[in-house]
Amino acid sequence: MLTLEWESEGLQTVGIVVIIFASLKLLHLLGLIDFSEDTVEDEMEMATVRHRPEALELLEAQSKFTKKELQILYRGFKNECPSGVVNEETFKEIYSQFFPQGDSTTYAHFLFNAFDTDHNGSVSFEDFVMGLSILLRGTVQEKLNWAFNLYDINKDGYITKEEMLDIMKAIYDMMGKCTYPVLKEDAPRQHVETFFQQKMDKNKDGVVTIDEFIESCQK
């Protein structure tokens, strides 16, 4: 199915689908399929970690998760990341386990930077929750804003053809041999050339603004 989408004009859809798919895989790795209550709330109160999460009530108000869901999220996060934060190397290790058929290093780097909203080199529980809240339960507008931030690698408010190509190459590298038939090496560049020039860069100035990005994706 992914191959069929790559063969079509739905370039932006592939990127967003892989973002959400990879995030769900991360949830699975963190053990978030266990919905038992036990003493999660007590653990949050007594955990001695270097980075303590904000109060559940505040996160509940800021995100689209319930208090129970946040407790479950925190349990998995704490079990996998006792320090309370995730660094980039841990992020890469997580994705390498779920995409062994390809090289997920570059994609994990880009995705880590998208989750690391304050650019301090680590992803806290709050960063993780807010990113997942958008990806899993946000509006179309919110999800597209998040995706734009992912593609805007240097965070200057524009997406260049080179940035989009870097992201798409990273996605293709990560998926590796799981596509059938195997795509040609120049497939990412061909798709970016077609989609960027014909669908996104409306005024032909060589960059895509967030308005152009959202308008193109919604169409």
Automatic annotation (TrEMBL):
<dbReference type="GO" id="GO:0005267">
    <property type="term" value="F:potassium channel activity"/>
</dbReference>
<dbReference type="InterPro" id="IPR011992">
    <property type="entry name" value="EF-hand-dom_pair"/>
</dbReference>
<comment type="similarity">
    <text>Belongs to the recoverin family.</text>
</comment>
<keyword id="KW-0633">Potassium transport</keyword>
<dbReference type="GO" id="GO:0015459">
    <property type="term" value="F:potassium channel regulator activity"/>
</dbReference>
<protein>
    <recommendedName>
        <fullName>Kv channel-interacting protein 4</fullName>
    </recommendedName>
</protein>
<dbReference type="InterPro" id="IPR018247">
    <property type="entry name" value="EF_Hand_1_Ca_BS"/>
</dbReference>
<dbReference type="GO" id="GO:0008076">
    <property type="term" value="C:voltage-gated potassium channel complex"/>
</dbReference>
<keyword id="KW-0106">Calcium</keyword>
<keyword id="KW-0677">Repeat</keyword>
<keyword id="KW-0472">Membrane</keyword>
<dbReference type="Pfam" id="PF13499">
    <property type="entry name" value="EF-hand_7"/>
</dbReference>
<keyword id="KW-0963">Cytoplasm</keyword>
<keyword id="KW-0576">Peroxisome</keyword>
<feature type="domain" description="EF-hand">
    <location>
        <begin position="187"/>
        <end position="219"/>
    </location>
</feature>
<dbReference type="InterPro" id="IPR002048">
    <property type="entry name" value="EF_hand_dom"/>
</dbReference>
<keyword id="KW-0812">Transmembrane</keyword>
<keyword id="KW-0813">Transport</keyword>
<feature type="domain" description="EF-hand">
    <location>
        <begin position="139"/>
        <end position="174"/>
    </location>
</feature>
<feature type="transmembrane region" description="Helical">
    <location>
        <begin position="12"/>
        <end position="33"/>
    </location>
</feature>
<dbReference type="GO" id="GO:1901379">
    <property type="term" value="P:regulation of potassium ion transmembrane transport"/>
</dbReference>
<keyword id="KW-1003">Cell membrane</keyword>
<dbReference type="Pfam" id="PF13833">
    <property type="entry name" value="EF-hand_8"/>
</dbReference>
<keyword id="KW-0479">Metal-binding</keyword>
<keyword id="KW-0631">Potassium channel</keyword>
<keyword id="KW-0851">Voltage-gated channel</keyword>
<keyword id="KW-0407">Ion channel</keyword>
<dbReference type="InterPro" id="IPR028846">
    <property type="entry name" value="Recoverin"/>
</dbReference>
<dbReference type="GO" id="GO:0005777">
    <property type="term" value="C:peroxisome"/>
</dbReference>
<dbReference type="GO" id="GO:0005509">
    <property type="term" value="F:calcium ion binding"/>
</dbReference>
<keyword id="KW-0597">Phosphoprotein</keyword>
<keyword id="KW-1133">Transmembrane helix</keyword>
<keyword id="KW-0406">Ion transport</keyword>
<feature type="domain" description="EF-hand">
    <location>
        <begin position="103"/>
        <end position="138"/>
    </location>
</feature>
<keyword id="KW-0630">Potassium</keyword>
